[in-house]
Write a structure and sequence with these properties.
The complex is a heterodimer of chains A (306) and B (357). Helices cover 72% and strands 1% of the residues of chain A. With 306 residues, chain A is an all-alpha fold. Chain A has a two-stranded antiparallel ribbon. In chain B, helix 2 crosses helix 12, helix 3 packs antiparallel against helix 10 and helix 3 crosses helix 12. Classes of the chains: A mainly alpha (306), B mainly alpha (357). Chains A and B meet through helix 4, helix 10 and helix 12 of A and helix 6, helix 11 and helix 13 of B.
Chain lengths: 306, 357
């Protein structure tokens, strides 16, 4: 029972994990991205369409990254180069993503593909309780583990990561050190968006190997909230995503057991839960030393330096 | 020799320049959306002509445009009131649903009669929408919790709550198990005009616009809202209670959006059903942004969006275009608008290469 629930937790949490990691990279550079929901949809559709026409899952994941990278570049262009309002631009990206995928998804509605399959990792999958849940999964889930470690390493043990964090905290100081602020920001937004796209592709290539209009159902917004819960750390994002995955898994379990509670009420749980988590982590953030990038949400203009 | 440009700030452009920039944004969005349509196998010129013909080419079309504009005006006003204070109410969609639930409860279960029932429905919708948004208002005012995320997530909860009611306790017992409530009595319906679906909710929307205009421009509260919006720290030093104001403004914003829910169920649908709003609350965000904070602007932009929605419905039938395509178009308008803001606020000055060194 616990093993099944844990397995479902990891599977439900992984798309959110990718999206949260992508959003963290955006915000570390100081750019708020509220386009996560739209980027996930763009990733989900382009991933599915590429796999459907080529038969290659790898190509699907790559296309999801590339498509979301390009869409994220619009947000980057507007917020970094043109210094536009980040909140409005992000909302526009979400609307654009919902509309564009509805339009181009018409061609593949009702089609199916062979999605990602489980591959057990030798030895590790034999571990009691956690073995099956974490090491008898599909390739994308293993990739997400590597990504969490890589992003942590990138931010805290590479020069580029340090530069990026500096830009989020104090772009004027970074600029004075000769760091190309706008170039870093642009790439962080675009690459982060690409990762969000892979989160969307997880839905259409692994969770349910098909394309359904608006299939993200608010997961992108949950990811935006989890960034705050994760205090902009990739490792904490893993816990946040699985916490959410656990709620979803339990909710589905209740439904399958046929409780008398309405399915509509059960479906509210992940959203209610996310709000509660957001409130708690915001309050905690204000009490302790805030991890929030100092310059989050503010455009950088060299002429405004003090 | 390569071209080099330097970005310079400038004083805000003239009103004419700003209007031109806004119009150019809409044209730019139409142009790019045309390419999207083309690649989806739809002739954009034919599609745009059809939108205009359907929405403006007949009395019925015009009445439908006004019908669609009604909830857009009300929610656009709701969002713009919060915008004035730099508060983002992305939850108008959910507040419409809660307002509709409040009005429906009064219509079906309160037992009120003719002269009282409509005002009571209005009040219930106002209160329900306001209470729903006040959660985000309280969290933002008391603990600085991000209101964008809270109001947005509450949309999903509100829609599920409405679904719970119409699939469960409020389902019409004589409705052959369809997920609908019973129809409202005649006393609980707004009057309709000219044998069309145009209902007095439209005039209610215009009245709301007047009320919001008077509130913002002619009262001390409106002045405070604008003062806090332009500089929160300064407003606090001037003795304004910014936390309380944030809470009240988000609540008011939600209450106004709730009125749109009342207008939709009492004027148009005469019952509560799934898909009550096809995203009016999200379109409202663009309307508020496009209208650049003016109540009259909200009415004009809402009418334009009404044309788009009526035309979009017809494209759905004739070209099998998804309804959600309107979102792509709205997103494009916002992108272009943000880009045009750059050219309003900055100028590009060509510089010689050696001058830079």
């Amino acid at each position: 029972m616990l093993e099944i629930l844990l397995d479902a937790t990891v599977r439900a949490g992984t798309p959110i994990l990718f999206a949260t990691l992508g959003a963290i990279i955006n915000e570390r550079a100081g750019i708020i991205n509220l386009g996560i929901e739209g980027l996930m949809l763009i990733g989900a559709l382009s991933g599915f369409a590429a796999t459907f026409s080529s038969g290659s899952l790898l190509l699907g994941v790559v296309s999801a990254f590339v498509a979301a990278f390009i869409a994220g570049s619009i947000h980057a262009l507007i917020t970094v180069q043109l210094r536009g309002n980040q909140i409005v631009s992000g909302l526009a990206l979400t609307m654009f993503g919902i509309g564009v995928t509805a339009l181009f998804g018409r061609g593949v509605v009702g089609q199916t593909i062979d999605g990602f399959e489980r591959h057990a990792v030798p030895l590790l999958s034999q571990l009691p309780v956690v073995g099956k849940a974490f090491f008898n999964q599909n390739g994308l889930i293993y990739f997400s583990f590597l990504l969490v470690a890589f992003i942590w390493f990138f931010f805290y043990h590479t020069r580029w990561g340090l530069n990026l964090r500096t830009i989020g905290e104090n772009p004027a100081a970074a600029d004075a050190c000769g760091i190309a602020v706008n170039r870093y920001r642009f790439l962080a937004v675009a690459c982060g968006s690409g990762l969000v796209g892979i989160g969307g592709a997880y839905l259409s290539l692994a969770s349910t190997p098909m394309w359904i209009e608006n299939m993200t159902a608010g997961r992108g917004w949950i990811a935006v909230a989890l960034v705050i819960f994760a205090s902009w750390s990739s490792v904490r994002a893993l816990f946040g995503a699985y916490l959410f995955g656990g709620i979803t898994a339990m909710q589905l379990r209740f439904q399958a057991m046929g409780t008398t509670v309405s399915a509509h009420v059960l479906q509210m749980l992940p959203y209610v839960f996310t709000i509660v988590v957001l409130v708690i982590s915001t309050i905690r953030l204000q009490k302790g030393a805030s991890q929030q990038p100092e310059n989050l949400g503010l455009p950088y203009d060299r002429e405004d330096r003090k | 020799m390569s071209l080099q440009f330097r970005v310079e700030k400038r004083e805000q452009g003239s009103a004419l320049f700003r209007t031109l920039a806004t119009s150019a944004s809409v044209l730019g969005a139409l142009f790019v959306a045309g390419f999207l349509l083309l690649s989806a196998g739809v002739n954009p010129a034919a599609a745009y002509m059809e939108i205009l013909r359907e929405a403006l080419g007949s009395t019925y079309g015009i009445s439908e445009t006004l019908v669609k504009a009604t909830p857009l005006i009300i929610t656009g006003l709701a969002v713009s009131v919060a915008f004035r204070m730099q508060i983002w109410n992305i939850g108008a969609e959910g507040q419409i649903y809660m307002g509709a639930c409040g009005a429906t409860w009064v219509a079906l279960f309160s037992g009120l009669e003719a002269p009282l029932i409509l005002p009571a429905m209005f009040a219930a919708a106002f209160v329900a929408g306001g209470l729903w948004a006040s959660v985000a208002g309280l969290l933002r005012a008391r603990w600085q919790v991000n209101e964008v995320i809270v109001t947005l997530l509450m949309n999903y909860i509100a829609i599920l709550l409405a679904d719970y009611l119409i699939y469960g306790p409020w389902k019409n017992p004589d409705g052959y198990n369809f997920p609908l409530t019973a129809q409202f009595s005649d006393a609980a319906r707004l009057s309709e005009y000219f044998n069309t679906r145009l209902h007095s909710g439209f005039f209610l929307a215009l009245f709301c616009a007047l009320a919001v205009y008077l509130l913002m421009e002619r009262t001390i509260w409106g002045y405070q809202i604008k003062a806090i919006g332009s500089n929160q720290a300064a407003a606090r030093y001037a003795g304004m209670k910014t936390g309380l104001a944030i809470f009240l403004v988000l609540t008011l914003s939600g209450a106004i959006a709730g009125v749109a829910g009342f207008s939709e169920v009492a004027g148009l649908q005469h019952r509560l059903q799934h898909g009550l709003s096809p995203g009016y609350g999200y379109t409202a965000i663009i309307i508020a942004w496009l209208a650049r904070r003016s109540a009259l602007g909200v009415i004009i932009v809402s009418l334009l969006m009404g044309i788009l929605l009526v035309g979009g419905d017809s494209l759905q039938l004739s070209w099998q275009l998804p309804v959600a395509f309107a979102y792509a178009f709205q997103g494009l308008i916002l992108f272009f608008l943000l880009a045009s803001d750059f050219f309003i606020n900055f100028r590009l000055r060509r510089v010689k290469e050696d001058a830079d060194a």
